[in-house]
Amino acid sequence: MRRALAGIALAVTSMVALSFLIPLALLVREQARDRVTTAAQQRASALSPVLALTTERGDVQQAVAEIGSRDQLVVRLPDGGLLGSPHAPKEALDRAVRKRETLAMDTAEGWVYLQPVVLPKNRVAVVEAYVPAADLTRGVWASWGVMSLLALGLVGGSVLVADRLGARVVRSSQSLKRASLALGSGDLDVRVAPDGPPELQDAGAAFNTMADRVVELLAIEREMVADLSHRLRTPLTALYLEADLMGASPGARRITKAVAQLESELDSIITAARTPLAAGPAAGHAAGRPCEMTEVVAMRLDFWSVLAAQQDRVCERSFTPRRTPVRFPEDDLAAVVDALIGNVFRHTPQGTAFAVRVERTDRHVLLTVDDAGPGVADPDAALTRGVSGGGSGGTGLGLDIVARAARAADGELQITRAPMGGARVRVSFGLA
Question: Looking at 23-27, 79-83, 316-320, 347-351, which range is the least confident one?
Answer without folding.
Answer: 79-83
